[in-house]
Amino acid sequence: MKIERHHPQLFPILLFSILIPLSGIIACNGGSSGLAPHEITAINDGSQHGPMGSIADSAGVDELPLFIGNVATANPLPPKDVPVHPYLAASGGVHVDSYNTDVSDWEGPLGSNPEVLSRSLGTPLGICFMRAFHPDGSLSSICYYYQTVDFSAGKVTLGMDLILFDPVTLAALDFYAIGEVTVGIPGTGDIQPADLSGIYFFVDSLGRAVVASPGNTIRIVEPGWSGGILRWKNEIILDLSDDLPEGAGNLIAVGPDFAGNIWFVTQFGGVGYVKEGTDEVYAMTLEGEKFENAFSTAPDGTYAASDHALYRFEIDPATGLPHFTWRAEYERATWVKPGMISGGTGTTPTLVGEDLVAFVDNADDQVHLLVHRRSSGEQICRVPLFSPGASVVEISPIGYGDAGGLFSSFIVQNNYNAPDIFGDYRELTTGLTRIDVLPDRSGCVEVWSNNDIPATTVPKLSTASGLIYTYTQLLDTTVSKAWYLAAIDFRTGKMVFMVRAGTGDFKHNYFATIEIGPDGTVYQGVMGGIIAVRDRD
């Protein structure tokens, strides 16, 4: 492996006074921490973004109600049953934890005198798809922004920055330049997940952001204080290009296992890891298969779904190589359904408790939630979702289980006929459903279904409030593209309240995720940047 000593461009913008200063020391309990970091010295004034003010609304915003429904009373659920990860921050994954549950034990807003903030990236198009929290409460996000367009080739070049945000004001504190990617012009349907390296990243237990970046490099970047200003301070760049199997393609996702190894998957079936505390890379290839989503890690193994099968991977103690201990094939699409991104599953495997792993297949007529035993790969249930001829799932299920065994629940969202960037949700086939696995693991049952809230965000469940948070377009209005944060009761599936987020193309979320912060704020990535919703009372 090559360890590159690049100096990406950075610039400290604002003092973030509420944070506890970091030590600036890279210790040996996370990822390739035994590799020496170096201080980032090059400067980036952030001028490629332009003025980063609030995201402007389109016409008609004042005709819309600020609030719909009723202020909620917290109805807590038992805390989720996910072990503390020694190498991952408490909410350091884009799906919250290494089980990819999309469940937070932090309380989300209850709709009490809500406040809505937004921050533009200052470019014609800029979206912060996914975010993660550092142990000190700071917030970072991989953000894409418009650079150039080639109409003859039908391509747009996007810049990529890892941005450190003030979670209270949404001020951009610092920028770390990741690189650039070229994708199809929005609206052509030519954007592929494999083109968008860096969407899947994590924050480790030391507060370092670990990013799969273009060029098959893993960047490990640590924030720290310098001259009284919070900034990206130290970096390690691991170049895997010479260590990946031939033809493996781009890195898609990275994540830590419970021994501190940094696992990764690549576009064309590559699976491997960087050994903890070293620069040693171990990898294998699944011939003829692709990865377009992230993976989950547990003490018992790493779970990943290619476009053909679900796998459980472990490390061979004799050779150090990754290998799969079981493989479960599933139904793939044979034609391009509206809203579909690829022929394989659109979901990252979700783990619940000590024994369950679930994902959604891509069967032609009607997709299914598939729940398997982690120990053997045995299928527990195969539940048809939504209506025949109108089901696509490109968002991983929420997975909630508690230590007492009251719940083993999965919440799945329909994305059939999801529009392209800037498209209208009136075209989208709605559907959100909760499926519970029976306590004796003899099957699964549908608990509720809500067909009133169209969404393509990655929703989150707060156990402290008992609410599921999603982002939706209000359809019962003549105002174009009216966007709301919606809160849904986990127990009943009924909408509790909605908070107006704004109007127009630049408040469109296009599959960007929701996150719940430690202070109860909900964050949503949108086409103009990022928004935040929190209670003031």
Please tell me about this protein's structure:
- It contains no helices and 36 strands.
- Strands 1, 2, 10, 11, 12 and 13 form a 6-stranded antiparallel β-sheet that branches. Strands 3-33-32-31-30-4 form a 6-stranded mixed β-sheet, with no helix packed on it. The protein has a 4-stranded antiparallel β-sheet with strand order 5-36-35-34, with no helix packed on it.
- The chain has a single domain, classed as Methylamine Dehydrogenase, Chain H (7 Propeller).
- The chain has strands at 2-4, 38-39, 67-69, 103-104, 114-120, 126-133, 139-150, 155-165, 172-184, 201-203, 209-213, 217-226, 229-239, 251-256, 262-266, 270-274, 281-285, 295-298, 301-305, 309-315, 322-329, 350-352, 356-360, 368-373, 379-384, 398-401, 408-413, 432-437, 444-450, 460-462, 467-474, 482-489, 495-503, 514-516, 522-526, 529-535.
- With 537 residues, the chain is an all-beta fold.
- The model is unreliable at 2-34 (pLDDT under 50).
- Helix content is 0%, strand content 41%.
